[in-house]
Fold each of these.
Amino acid sequence: MAAGRRARKAHGVVTNAGRRGLLAAPLLTLTLCSEAQAGGAKAPAPWDDLGSNLAADFGGNNLYWHAAAVTSSVALAESGADYEARTWVQRQARGRGFADVCVVSGYVLPAVVAPGLYAAGLGAGDRKAAYAGAAAVQSLTVTLVTVGILKWGLGRPYPNNGRDPYAPDALDHPEDARLGSLRPFGEHWMMAWPSGHTAATMSVAAALHGFAPEYGWLGWVGYPLALGIGAGMIVGDHHWTSDVVAGAMMGHAIGYSTGRAFRRAFDGSKPSALASAYPVIRAVQPVVLATGGWGVGVWGSL
């Protein structure tokens, strides 16, 4: 029991640090872009066309994705499928280590890949990488703000709902999965719906895939990775199944739409002074890949 409490305390430290990292990462890109502009280079910025991109993120065909996120969650919660899925997984699951890795990865990967790719593109004078990174940063930021508002506004409790996860009756509370358990605008703003880990990772994967669909492997790597992190949230009992499904749908809608918008801007733009900078990214690529930054080193060969 003492070991379990220590593990939960450690998880809380990692969780808080990860949240700060996710919130700080977009701010880093503001500084980088400002410095590039001050140096005379015309660089893409993560806030480019933000207004029109927001309209596209939450309008048009994306309305279907957001509507599906809501309706699927209502169906899973009220039908009892959320509760049944949780109890089955927790009684069968043997992947606690996998779940812990997913918790950390869901914080680290989006916070590293999006601003890292943008910074690498600026530093190397690689316009395509800079545009792709800007798209990833914008989609990640919009996704995090959207998820934060929904978490606080709906106030859906996590599966344990503040109870001891090791208590004998930990899985005997089906009422926690239903909509009657919502506590809108409560004192705790980081609640369960939708899954921020899944949404953030999916938004970055979708933005890169949307920006560069000609590199199909970006989708084959990014989407399974995001879904794997979502699965880890379920296995670790951090989220209801519907939280993960909704996060994946919202992250895809925002990310892909933003990626396509930045690609149109890239295709219609003219080479700037940024394009003449030295290709640092080729030297950085092996180091980044060796440290696990799969999204940054990609662009060295483009």
Amino acid sequence: MMLKFTTFVFAVLMFTNAVSQVDIAERSAVYGGPAVDQAKQICEKTFNKQKYPGLAVAVSHKGQTILSQGWGYSNIESEKPIDPETTMFRIGSISKTLTTAGLQLLVQEGKIDLDENVRTYVRYFPEKEYPLIVRQVAGHIAGVRHYKSPYEMMSNVYYPTVKGGMHIFMDDPLLFKPGEKYSYSSYGWNLISAVIEGGSEEAFLVFMQRRVFDAFDMQDTQEEIRANLPEEIVSFYVKDLNRKNVLAPDVDNSYKWAGGGFISTAKDLLKFSHQIHHSDLIDQDLLKEFQTPLTLNNGKKTNYGLGWATNVDKKGRRWVGHSGGSVGGTSMYLYYPDYDLAVVTLVNLSSAKMDQLAWKVAEQFLTHLDGDE
């Protein structure tokens, strides 16, 4: 009886996946079959050229998935294939963009003031020579340091709380007077997660699960806890001296959940993109503010808002999103607001050479959409 039930469940899952792929194929034809074919060819060419272990690529237009495909393996030894619907990757600093959704919800509710000192919400954070403002920390212009060396990224220590990870950097001096420079800092986002805890009066991970992942139906997105990795997580690889893919050293990303410690699927990141730009939960005017580059004390603008990178492509089309780099992971989330087009690329390899893959994929669809206007 148990064998029959298991066979039935497997058959249902296979049928559901087949239906999903048929739906995507039908949408692909509507949104430009040649664009899909060209995008796939670019992905396959890049995959073969760079010799990634595995690659997942997904594209959506107006919330509808029009490309979802994997190349290579989640695990090379077992030859487990990549499935963009279910395979989970380290998404690196895309975690900042997920976290900023939580920050925005609290700003909307009046529980956090972006122009308030971080110590209003994090009393244990030491006083510095200058006051640290939430907005400046979230936009990488507060002077909070990044990693002292690549070795800090190799931490294998488990920190069960946000406060535990804060001790790595919070007693260090600021690099400069806030607002003077742009200096990228993942540790700044540790501090933002502590601000979220203070504003919400809730543990950061509990808050993110309840207010963002559950609310956005992101069923395959979570914090990475090494002792409890999900079955669908990829194996993590690095290139050795002979440019061969080998297993990466074990690391524990609990020291930087908000800045680079979440794991997710290509499918879930498309869900996030649609929800953050269309959900009634999100104040779109405030989102535009979060996606607007900050201005330094000298009047120059950065290319970064609050958890959102923002720029224009070679043809002057505005995009927002975030890249991600982690041990055993390279990722990109790209969104074109004027086209409602989202692209996600995920690779289970450290420092993978991406050859502007997300932009090349986007270009195939943008050219098609421009032709329809």
Amino acid sequence: MCVKWNRIYCNWTDICLSLPVPSTLITRVEVENATVTEKSVHSNRRGEEMIRSRLLRVILTVFVFLAGSLACSRQQPDELSIRLKWIHQAQFAGFYYAQETGLYAAKGVTVSLRPGGVDYPAIKRVASGSDHFGVAGADQILIARGNGIPIVAVACIYRKSPFVLFALSGSGINSVEDLRGKRVGVLLGGSEELVYRAMLRKAGLTSADVNEIPVELDITLLLTGQIDVWPGYSINEPITLEDQGHQVTLIWPEDYGIHVYSDVLFTTEEMIRSNPQIVRDVVDATVKGWEGAFSDRNSAVEFTLTYSDQLREDHERKMLDASADLVMPDQKPIGWMEREAWENLHQLLRTSGFLKEDVDIDQAFSIDLLPGVGQ
């Protein structure tokens, strides 16, 4: 670092010493406490050297101050934190794989993976500066930007959302159209409600056509017949029910033309502006972590289990297996995002009233930091 700054210092010294002395500065100078005329100054080399020296000191002082300020503002954090979308589980196996196999460390970054959830919402934590990166739904990214929060999606993990509506097999409920007159559990205020209401509209139904019941996490309401349809995630609750011997029927939003990116890795505009290489390194290691998690699933599950003593190996393996077609629904690379998908989501949010004003989509996401892009 010292060699670099010495080189810059020398270059500026050469420039300054080669500058002509402005005539306005040498019309009158003091040399050995005597005032001399303009004619004598031009003939006095010592006077010119003094002015050049003073000019050099001023320029160097300003330059070093500005350069130092810039260096401080772009100082790399000692440790980077990634706030996950939910509690530790195989839904985030690629992050664990990247951490435990040294993919982050190989990039020269120290990363802490922190659980999310209701008490630790990723967007609020990142926006406040408590964390450097976060994981959230793409719809939440747009809503946050609509509220003036300058965050940017830099990679999409689940390109097909795991969110589904599901009912017990044998209930006669196989489609959204079958929800008419049924008791439907609704998770209010988030991505789940957005997608659910969009599914109703696509099927030609309104909330008046169903009996909506606000729910949280107590899925026993479905098993005891108090709810006919439950909102959940294909990689979690249906697996749990099937392990308990209950067969379920899944109703996918994609069957109604609704595509919402889920589990999007994001950071702040300032982080991208100040530390673009760090962001690129984190994105690259995360993508490689997910690639490794699916190619070496046994290790990925083992790593996942070390993050919580509440996890069961068989369930986490099934969760990871169920995630494969959602993270890789086509031949596009992990992390990839398309503007059309963001445009459609933006329109969905505006139509549903979740977004009050238009958001600049091009500022909300970037693929430039993905591996092999923008380099």
Amino acid sequence: MSASTPPTPTFGQRLWAAFTALLRAVLLLVILVVFGLFLYWSLPHIYNNFILPVQQHGAQIEDLQSQQDYLTAQLAEQNTALSERIQTLETQNDLNRQTIADLKAEIARLNDELQKANTAQQTSAERMLTLRQYVETLDKNLQALEPRLNDLEQQIAAQEEGLTLLSDSLLSQEAPLLTLYREVELVKAMQLLTRSRISLELGNTGLARQDIQAAYDLLAGLRPIVFGDQVPALENILNRLDLALNDFTTAPGLVPNDLENAWELLQAGLPDNGLPSATSLQIVVTPEMPLTDTITETVELAPEPTESPTPETTPEATPTPTATP
């Protein structure tokens, strides 16, 4: 048998179905818009009136809880510190009581010592009177010894003058040797500078620097035996050599000029370094007092009440030597 086919809708039916679908879509869109407007105006109101106050109240509660915890901890610390303070004050109070007791005992001891000191002061006054008499006796004995002391001082002055003349004599005899020694050292330094200049010409800066250093050390050894105007002259040469040594690292081109200046200073030599004329020097120091003169003075001192008597003092004159180089 054959299947039945549905009837074909007419134009009016299709138009009504399209209008119905359009009407439903418009109605659904209106409902969605109304619902969206409701949410747009109601959600902020709900949030501001219900959710936000709850959050603020929660934050305030948490803040109050934190403050309460902090105050509780601070109160506990203050209670602990106060307890320790009370305990420290109690301990200090006990110590103060003990200190007061010790001070009372110390005051009693000082009173006893004060009484002993008063007694000792009276004894000291009597001893002071005895010592004053002892000092007066010493003054008299010293006045008696002053003439002898003046004689001894004159003898010592004569001895010092003789030693000075003897030292000048020895220096005069050694002067030619020192002069010759200084001249030889200057010549050696000039030879070393000549070698250093040759080494510089050959390009051997290491050997040249060693020779300059050797010349510097050689001349530095003359410092103890130069005198007067020789000292600044020697220091000028040493400064020039030291400048040359520094120029090896800072300005190598200036080294030959420094060596030339040092050479000229060495060639000029040290001032007053000539050999003295041969003269004979004889120094004779005669004593002002006889060598057999002896001063003997006996001083009798008044003994102190609790000490042994002072022994006698016997100074003797010292003879003056005679130096003849």
